[in-house]
Amino acid sequence: MTLLSQLRDAPARLRNSARQVPEHDIDESQVEVESTAHSAAGMTAVTVAMRRAIGQMGVRRTASSLLRLNQVDGFDCQGCAWPDPAPGHRHTAEFCENGAKAVAEEATQQLLDREFFATHSVADLSERTEFWLGKQGRIVEPMVLRPGASHYEPISWDDAFATMAGHLHRLESPDEAIFYTSGKTSNEAAFVYQLFVRAFGTNNLPDCSNMCHESSGAALNETIGIGKGSVSLEDIHQAKLIVVVGQNPGTNHPRMLSALEEAKSNGARIVAINPLKEAGLVRFKNPQHAKGLTVGTALADLHLPVRLNGDLALFQAIGALLVEWDAVDHDFLAEFTTGFSDYAQHVAELDWSKVEASTGLTREQVTEAARMFAESPATVTCWAMGITQHHNAVATIKEIVNVALLRGDIGKPGAGLCPVRGHSNVQGDRTMGIWERVPEHFLDALRDEFGFEPPREHGYDTVGAITALRDGKARVFMGMGGNFVGAAPDTAATEAAMRNAALTVHVSTKLNRSHVVHGGEALILPVLGRSEKDRTGGRVQRVTVEDSMSAVHASQGPLEPASEHLRSEVDIVCSLALATLGAASPVPWATLRDDYTEIRRRIARVVPGCASYDDKVDQPGGFVLPHPPRDNRVFETPSGRAVITSTPLEVLDVAKGRFLLQTMRSHDQFNTTIYGLDDRYRGVKGGRRVVFVNADDLRDLGFVDGDLVDLVSEWRDGVERVVRSFRVLPYDQPRGCVAAYYPEANALVPLDSTAEKSNQPVYKSIVVRLDRPPAQPGSAPGSPDQGPGSLRTDHPHHLS
Fold it and tell me: What domains can you pick out in the chain, each with its CATH number?
């Protein structure tokens, strides 16, 4: 069924449906719970995607955008970073349900103008949920919140840049400014953004990698010499075993299901390792062909319901069995690795009682998975934030690397390591220099290309930025896209830190919580979306992006901009640079602003692997950046070899009546953007304040389905962080584990609870308890507090 036929056959109620802008916020008392799904996608996904797209964009705009989405001559999806098939192998509808929702959110015809801001005070907006804020429409002109004012009001672009430049000039040091980047920023914008920040004089460049895959980069750089995955899409198709661990592709990377289906048709087996049994890895109903719409394809051959934080023990046990069975590639180990002998001795002493306690699995289940590794001639292991957001995440990823190295599964077809990025260009941003700890050789190249000496001292990451704002060491915050306040940990601490700033600036398409938690002065700068035409400098411009597998390709939006006042990311950055640094700057900001080709020429001379960059992106489908381990089994570590590591095995144990919480997405959201209120695959409809709990744990606690609880996290600082009035929902998962949606549950994550070596916030394995909420005089049942969370220190128990 083609997209054109879907549009042609769309019922009149869809074609003529009015745009839905909520007048009232979420009523959590109306949440409904249905049975969980046993398959993903199918005709339901098609219907939902078309209803959302047509409802927000109309039929013509839907066709104009979706027919160009992820096409060779089109634009890259604003959602996940899953790679596109090769040119000539793409479907007419080369997108998923959530990709269609992402485009509809951005290309909505609902506009948010100055009258809206005149009507709604910031105090009013601060009481609204992310869902309500995001549904109000596209921001169409720059807005400013003056010191002491109650409402945002319009401001000209020139005055906005002058306001920002004035604040930056008044700082005692450039290091008092923080410049955040979300993963949607294009390569061109990311390159000029980091160039401006370093020309200004600081390396304070936190980004969303700090919150999602920083642990992957830390582990991979140390073990294989490059912080990126080592596989291509073709490797997925050719693999004989695919292990999907700590990842829910059915919701977070739905197009991955097509690749898994193709691998299955080529004889691959699939192992799913996740506390929850997610529908996408049970059965995939591919809407691209008739069989998919009816029967579908069973994907996972084995599901291991691992206890939260048990993945390190699981992979160490698998490695131990491979060594015990002598199911290792001795030639590869001898030629390309170091550390094997120490590792073999370490795992020979493995304590299986600790493995079983940590994983919640039996020895037989672990052995079955190890046998699948041993029998596979080519294995790909994929992971996402279910692995990276733990205290021991870096060590866990090193254990995943260990197993791959034991089997020689790097640098051969159908095998490798695959960290799946959750945002469309987060990997490209890092390639372009968005990093608070960029290597010296990158700074040297900037100096040689542009004629100024970049700062060398490392800057603030996300957690460091919040701490600096809290402590008064930073005074200006600029966010290039994203929703920093909503995404960051420890919501109360983050909001207090942002309110301590003298100026907060957000480059945005739509309203979110970061706009209503502001500094002494605040700016909202409306930006062109990925789906819109960019005519900056009086010419048609294009940008480039990088996917999870190091493939770089062009992106060019087809739609007319939502407003004549919108500017591109590149324009905003370069114009700010001109206002701040002046015409005497050695960087030709006006030239870079007006001609993105010139930016790509500079990228070619500065960024490793990007020689002839502009020419290469002219090729259909773009090009793939070099990856020494994948390409030539070259490992750029100090030893010149891949590193096998030995890590002590510890069990994360919690007190009786306490649980390990993981935060996660619903099926109706992307990061902090809430598309709707239905988590179709998990059976939740009409609300978000739910907590998934094992049924036996609920019984032991004396709760029943539908009871309301407060979630209270306990941390060694003695502070108890609370989110209130969550409905308990029995759900199949390991005992002692619970789950809730972010951003609502982010308030429970302590700011200083971070992963070792990566400093990534620990959004998984948070120690919590479930309290009955205290009676509130005059409160209405089912009308929970919608706030971000609160702090209290009145309970004596906390972890030491």
Answer: 3-106 (no CATH), 121-209+425-615 (3.40.50.740), 214-419 (3.40.228.10), 659-792 (2.40.40.20)
